[in-house]
């Protein structure tokens, strides 16, 4: 199923002409960029008037946006087809979130160019499932930023690269600490209607279970190499954390599916000097929730697992590897400080009665789970170059250290092993002093 954006646009902007180009990377929806063009009549070879459509140009007297983004939500996952149905309610959720971050929304103060930008909503057509919103510019995803091909072609000074990688990590850590905070949740619940509140029920549970939870048991055994009993024990922890009731104070506004493709940044080639401002944007909010949303142990653990996989994949000593390390370190430290986790887990008494310890255990389980899933995805996309067995075992290490309960996780012998976390990502996210052998890039000052 496709959608004719070109024929739909005149219904919104009858006085302007647009050309459209489909954007890559979208899995769930079909997304295009529409660029305004000027109609210029000229005479053809037969003497008849012909309208040519050149590239977009700025018309200061035109009220139509110069560029905009349009997203069509079919009743299934676009990249898979009808065999993977997906509720179109997801688009209503995204439109609602964009309004919350909009000029009259309770989260508008978080939507700033010097930190993170959220696109302004232009129009939502729930009948045709078309969402139209502001174009943040020709930015790239973090997947693209941290790709060896892009880095190898760059002539930007590594000192400037380090500065901006650190800056991006700081801005994202600060932004999501506020998004996940109690003030944001309270403001959203006060603003949205009862019908919107119902729509915010987590609708990704079934698909997330089938795609991200159910395969773990088999993956722990092959390629992970664990025996059946051990694999079943660790899988039970993954399943148990997935289906449990929320901890006190855990629920927050969350994206629900946060990965490197959810963040847009200025392309590396445009990082021309250390004082220039790199753009950062957060996109794709269709799976956001305010009911079962998880912050550090949801959005952040899932997001960081992708970079954990990149640190395993990229050879140490390469610039790409260092870039990921600089970014991850600052992201974790900023989030820990601004979210209050550094006080709750890094400096407070480590006891099972401390709710933050339950969040830590949950984060370790999700981080381990998604490290395993990323290992399989990386092998599929990159072949034999991926150390898939080592990556799956690295994910399993987190499931083992999580224990069967918070009490078991906090047992002295297990806690001592946890303090040896090789790259220190989860410990740093929770503001806990890293004592183990750290990853060179992540531990760099």
UniProtKB/TrEMBL annotation:
Superkingdom of origin organism: Eukaryota
Family matches, as SUPFAM superfamilies: Protein kinase-like (PK-like)
Matches recorded under InterPro entries: Kinase-like_dom_sf (IPR011009)
Gene3D superfamilies, A to Z: 3.90.1200.10, Phosphorylase Kinase, domain 1
Name of this protein: Aminoglycoside phosphotransferase domain-containing protein
């Amino acid at each position: 199923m496709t959608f004719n954006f070109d024929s739909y646009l005149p219904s919104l902007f009858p006085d302007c002409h647009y050309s459209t180009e489909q954007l890559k990377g979208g899995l769930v929806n079909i997304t295009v960029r529409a660029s305004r063009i000027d109609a210029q009549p000229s005479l053809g070879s037969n003497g008849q008037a012909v309208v040519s459509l050149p590239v977009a140009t700025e018309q200061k007297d035109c009220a139509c946006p110069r560029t905009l983004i349009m997203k069509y939500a079919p009743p299934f996952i676009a990249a898979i087809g009808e065999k993977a149905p997906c509720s179109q309610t997801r688009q209503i959720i995204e439109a609602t979130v964009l309004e919350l971050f909009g000029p009259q929304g309770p989260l508008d103060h978080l939507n700033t160019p010097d930190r993170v930008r959220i696109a302004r909503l232009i129009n939502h057509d729930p009948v045709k499932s078309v969402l139209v919103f502001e174009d943040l510019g020709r930015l790239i995803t973090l997947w693209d930023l941290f790709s060896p091909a892009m880095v190898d072609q760059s002539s930007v000074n590594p000192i400037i690269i380090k500065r901006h990688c650190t800056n991006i990590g700081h801005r994202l850590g600060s932004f999501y600490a506020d998004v996940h905070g109690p003030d944001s949740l309270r403001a959203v619940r006060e603003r949205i209607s009862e019908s919107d509140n119902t729509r915010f029920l987590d609708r990704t549970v079934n698909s997330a279970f089938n795609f991200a939870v159910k395969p773990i048991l088999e993956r722990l055994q092959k390629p992970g190499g664990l025996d059946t009993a051990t694999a079943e024990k660790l899988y039970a922890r993954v399943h148990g954390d997935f289906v449990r009731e929320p901890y006190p104070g855990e629920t927050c506004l969350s994206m629900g599916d946060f990965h490197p493709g959810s963040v847009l940044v200025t392309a590396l080639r445009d990082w021309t000097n250390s004082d220039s401002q790199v753009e950062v944007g957060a996109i794709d909010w269709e799976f956001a929730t305010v009911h079962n949303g998880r912050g550090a142990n949801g959005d952040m653990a899932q997001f960081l697992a992708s970079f954990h996989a990149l640190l395993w994949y990229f050879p140490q000593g390469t610039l790409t590897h260092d870039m990921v390390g600089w970014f991850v370190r600052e992201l974790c430290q900023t989030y820990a400080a601004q979210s209050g986790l550094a006080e709750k887990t890094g400096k407070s008494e480590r006891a099972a009665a401390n709710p933050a310890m339950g969040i830590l255990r949950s984060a370790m389980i999700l981080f381990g789970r998604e490290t395993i899933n990323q290992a399989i995805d990386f092998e599929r996309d990159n072949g034999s170059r991926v150390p898939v067995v080592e990556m799956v075992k690295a994910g399993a290490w987190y499931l083992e250290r999580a224990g069967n309960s918070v009490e078991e996780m906090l047992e002295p012998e297990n806690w001592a092993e946890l303090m040896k976390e090789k790259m220190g990502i989860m410990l740093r996210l929770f503001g806990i002093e890293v004592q183990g052998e750290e990853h060179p890039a992540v531990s760099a000052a």
